[in-house]
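debug: dumping io for the single-chain case to check the tokenizer round-trip. Nothing else runs in this session.
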Amino acid sequence: MRLSSPILSILINILLGASWAFALLGAFTLFFLFIHVGFFYSFVGSFLGAMPGLFMVLLIEYFLMREEKLNELKKQTQLLEELVAKA
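debug: decoded output
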């Protein structure tokens, strides 16, 4: 992934890694917290524990997708302006 500034790229990668870690930590914590209640409840708990981290991952990936789309639209606009100027 190539963003406009290297500082933004580093920040996004750190936040993405922290979100994945938060999702895994939540899943493992609630899985082992509910394992004594039952296997089904531990799976449901691990799913619910992973949801906030996975939501953050989706949010960051959406931001990256919109950033890439904006960069592509800027390139296309520049090319179209060059074509119109030649005509």
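debug: round-trip ok. DSSP finds two helices and no strands in the chain.
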